[in-house]
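Hi R.,

Here's the chain you asked about this morning:
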Amino acid sequence: MSSVWYHLSLESNWKVIANSSSVRNDAIKPRIPEDSYQEPQEILRVCVAPRVWQCLRSIPRDGTLHIYKIETSLVINANDIADGHISGENWITDEQLESEIPLEYMGFVFKDTDLLNNLRFYSTPGTSRDGRLSENPDSTYWRIDNGEWIFDDSNLG
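And here is the predicted structure, written out as tokens:
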């Protein structure tokens, strides 16, 4: 049974997830992320999470990030990562990809220190507002304006 996952990228032109041997130039291909120094270095993968905020918590770079929605059952739990209990990070590995997985472009988000601090505030275990992001649908705290996803915590209380 397929589930919905999200992936963030610096690029806005991806159409599918394909095996690393694919010749398509519009495909995200499994790889070892350059910023995965504390994660397994032998598994080619595309990182995904169940919610956009979880993707943002797990990606260590700021700037404009493009949001892709994926529907698939081809995910494995990334148990070996330190923040997996918060980020919900899962992987689509190279060896799982027997065919291409379509991507749906959802827009973009500008990630900076302020956004990351807000996401931490509402999602870090033990804080007074812990769980607010997980308990509410995305539409509660994301406002979409001309394709840009803007975090709005006014409905989170």
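One quick note: The longest strand covers residues 63-72.

Cheers,
M.
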